[in-house]
Amino acid sequence: MKKHVYISISADLIHHGIINILKEAVKYGEVTVGLLTDSAIASYKKLPVMNYSERLQVVESLKYVSNVVKQDSLDPTDNLLKLKPDYIIHGDDWKVGFQSSYRNKVLACIEEWGGKLVEIPYTKGISESILHSAMLSVGVTPERRLLSLRRLLAAKPILKFCEVHNGLTGSIVENTKVITDKPYEFDGMWASSLTDSTSRAMPDIEAVDISSRLRLVDEVFEVTTKPLIFDGDTGGIPEHFKFTVRQLERLGVSAVIIEDKTGLKKNSLFGNDVKQTQDSIENFCEKIRIGKESQITDDFMIIARIESLILEKGMDDAMSRAKAYIDAGADGIMIHSRKKDPSEIFEFCEKYQRIENRKPLVVVPSSFNQVTEDELQLKGVNIVIYANQLLRAAYPAMRKVAESILINHRSLECDSSLMKISEILDLIPGTR
Ligand code: SPV
Ligand code: MG
């Protein structure tokens, strides 16, 4: 009787390493591929280049593959329990690292019906991650980058975005990865008006013009592939906002967030300590409508930011604005607070969950920074933005070094706080 073999793959970039494993797998019997969904892949690495149905078409056409089933999580045991294959084939790389817990679970599971695990050495020098890095050096098209935010929102329960204010911070957000219980990295970038202005020693009052802000986005895009959300401040006057929307789309920016303030905008974290004026619901809805009408693609998102809690106008005002902005066409809502205590944000999140045509919800926990992503996810938050931390880390470090040089009349004393010359020379690929 024909034996059955199960193998999980993501099959985003089919390469000879995967073909080697499949060739080996057919020697044991009829091969069923558990094809990882976009969510399963996004739970531990970058979104695949091709979506599930595109990857399905590729895998179904491979001569070594008899069946394809959906695998919703990195853990294949649900599928194994249903299919009870005689063999499960896997690359031997999962013996160590975060996947080893799945390996143990699989071994315990297949023991029930006497299934066997066959581990095949990974082909050296090739992997999807290596191909992804190679693709990064080629770049990403504006269209693909723009769409990637909507794809990520569909694939992951909560996205983490981090502030960028130049190419170097872009490359930090693009490339920083940690592995704890599993690998983590940022999903995308926030072009903050606060850190963009501050890094130019300018106030955050829309004094840095849109062309300069877009120039920075272009610089960041030169060295990154992740999606970017642009802090559009008030959006300016509606007649100007429609041009901004098109410029952002042309570059490949995925979303703009505009805040419902009017006149001279000041940073929200000042709250009512400075004079700030909230726009009327009617005017702001009109701005959203004009922005939506001017879009060229269907994928670009206009996210409406509500300043009612910042300006102490109350929860009811915040909620009625959320409903009105969504009705006007907003693709998402950002709610902001400058309180250390997250209770007003949580209250908003709970009420917002009950809105019928709810759209993705964005928060910026600069003040209520004790709240974890898991807690925010439970409250229904879809995007969390770390809006200024990289700049706030860099400035005190630079200032301390400047002071040390002035105090000591040389740089020896601060040397231990600095990167080595050889490290900075090699930091950026292509410097040598
Ligand atoms: C920014 O980063 O510029 C923001 C968020 O708009 S906040 O500074 O909190 O207003
Ligand atoms: Mg801002």
Q: Notable features of this structure?
A:
single chain, 432 residues, alpha/beta, 8-stranded parallel beta barrel, 5-stranded parallel β-sheet, 17 helices, 17 strands, 17% strand, globular, binds sulfopyruvate, binds magnesium ion
Give the SSE map.
Layout: E1 4-9, H1 16-26, E2 30-36, H2 38-42, H3 52-60, E3 67-71, H4 77-83, E4 87-91, H5 100-111, E5 116-120, H6 128-138, H7 142-155, E6 159-163, H8 167-175, E7 177-179, E8 183-185, E9 188-191, H9 193-199, H10 210-222, E10 228-231, H11 238-251, E11 255-259, E12 261-262, E13 277-278, H12 281-294, E14 301-306, H13 315-327, E15 332-335, H14 343-353, E16 361-363, H15 373-378, E17 383-386, H16 389-408, H17 421-427
Parallel strand pairs: 1-2, 1-4, 2-3, 4-5, 6-9, 6-17, 9-10, 10-11, 11-14, 14-15, 15-16, 16-17
Antiparallel strand pairs: 7-8, 12-13
Helix pairs in contact: 8-10, 10-11, 11-12, 12-13, 13-14
The protein binds sulfopyruvate (SPV) and magnesium ion.
